[in-house]
Amino acid sequence: MNTAIKDAAFNPRDCGSCPIRHRAVCSRCEPDELDRLDAIKYYRSYEAGQPVIWAGDHMEFVASVVSGIATLSQTMEDGRTQMVGLLLPSDFIGRPGRDLAPFDVVAVSDLTVCCFRKKPFEELMASTPSIGTRLLQMTLDELDSAREWMLVLGRKTAREKIASLLAILARRDVVLGKTPPTSGMSLDLPLTREAMADYLGLTLETVSRQISALKKAGVIILEGKRHVIIPDIEVLLAETGDDVDGGPLT
Amino acid sequence: MNTAIKDAAFNPRDCGSCPIRHRAVCSRCEPDELDRLDAIKYYRSYEAGQPVIWAGDHMEFVASVVSGIATLSQTMEDGRTQMVGLLLPSDFIGRPGRDLAPFDVVAVSDLTVCCFRKKPFEELMASTPSIGTRLLQMTLDELDSAREWMLVLGRKTAREKIASLLAILARRDVVLGKTPPTSGMSLDLPLTREAMADYLGLTLETVSRQISALKKAGVIILEGKRHVIIPDIEVLLAETGDDVDGGPLT
DNA sequence: CGTTGTCTTGAAAGTTGTCAATACTTGTGG
DNA sequence: CCACAAGTATTGACAACTTTCAAGACAACG
């Protein structure tokens, strides 16, 4: 709750100071296009744990994640759930041209999103190629990572799954400049054991056991439950089962 | 091989008679736009089993599947492979704006594709909104189905996976008008047991056993190895583990 | 008619899930 | 300030499911 207020510290009316200005769906817009987007945008915040959208809901808006983390997931009748996406700042929520949400979206941390009413956004997109082009690029990237995740879900062992998740989180922190890709780097887990299990297609007990196993093997060091130190990044990458040619974390 | 020749029976220079004209990436093009696409297109055929692209290759073209079936898949160093897409007529291969292929593409039946050299296609896309718009729509659809498949891979049992695959194939035949969605409908499996296993994240032995189990339970009837009769479609859908509200095969 | 690729089935082993008990952390209220 | 409750995480024992290894059936093809 405090976080949400703090995160809204930039001027919510000024796209120029927006922290996701250069990566979100609007990143290719010219100043005049940005003005038109500005006219239909509004911010919305959710507390950690709150639902943003339920599968089957009518979507009245599309949105960009400004700060915080949300998950995209699917739940079966008997309660089994599978996460199908992790939404980080600059990621896009919703789909122009469809009005029923196919998946649940839940805030896992305090979350602020920049919403656009769907109808005006669709009209704007039709007249503004730079939005559609950027959205296509983002969607193709997401499709590639969904397909990479299918390999993890379908073919990797529990231990490889955990190592893969840690490697992904490490790579993301490096890309965002949070830490250099050195040995000895550390990272915070943004997810509970249960959320990790939902991401990886495992039970939370198996997640816990495999994290303990990686700790016992010296691949990672735990500080508390959520902070991980990686003594040797290459050792971690070797545990993912992936090809490691072409250098680490590229 | 005969198939490839037969499939090329329509005039390959006339987009008007193209069997995927109304569903492929070009489906929204006006006649003049089609002429420009026409100028950079060429057909290419592959025999069943042949590779179309290897992961890591430079992509010199993008393409639409005209006839036949191809798979998109990923292989680990030790040989474990996961299929991440099934490419059917009208599906798009390749990605504007990237020149290394992220996945292997293999023809599983005789295959004919309509290729566009990548550079000219990208230029044309920049000046022809109807292509980009259609490609965005197709990519969003593929992303949704990739995410649905993540639930299958991560959370379903072997039996549910087989039932889900059969349900998908049945739904596709209904949508294409090959058969009405009646009880007693039948379908041909376009994949070997091994390819099904790669799609479902199973071994081919488990695929075989679960097909036998569904047969023994009366959910399906086998005629030969590749032809399936579905006595009661709702019984099959119940085996998928999915919610079946809202009518079958919708 | 043998070869090859595909498919089925069995038995044993291994991995992961299930059920259960316990510990740790945090926040609330007495 | 302490006690308690709730949420989160760890660990053990056992069960269940899927894989692995192996043998053999079946069909297509030269």
UniProtKB/TrEMBL annotation, chains A, B:
InterPro entries: cNMP-bd_dom, cNMP-bd_dom_sf, Env_Response_Regulators, HTH_CRP, RmlC-like_jellyroll, Tscrpt_reg_HTH_Crp-type_CS, WH-like_DNA-bd_sf, WH_DNA-bd_sf
Domain Cyclic nucleotide-binding span(s) in chain numbering: 25-94
Domain HTH crp-type positions: 156-234
Entry-linked SUPFAM superfamilies: cAMP-binding domain-like, Winged helix' DNA-binding domain
SMART domains xrefs: cNMP (SM00100), HTH_CRP (SM00419)
Superkingdom as given in the UniProt entry: Bacteria
Keywords recorded for this protein, A-Z: DNA-binding, Transcription, Transcription regulation
Pfam families attached to this UniProt entry: cNMP_binding, HTH_Crp_2
Record-linked NCBIfam families: TransRegFnrLRhodb
PANTHER family xref list: CRP FAMILY TRANSCRIPTIONAL REGULATORY PROTEIN (PTHR24567), FUMARATE AND NITRATE REDUCTION REGULATORY PROTEIN (PTHR24567:SF75)
Full protein name: Crp/Fnr family transcriptional regulator
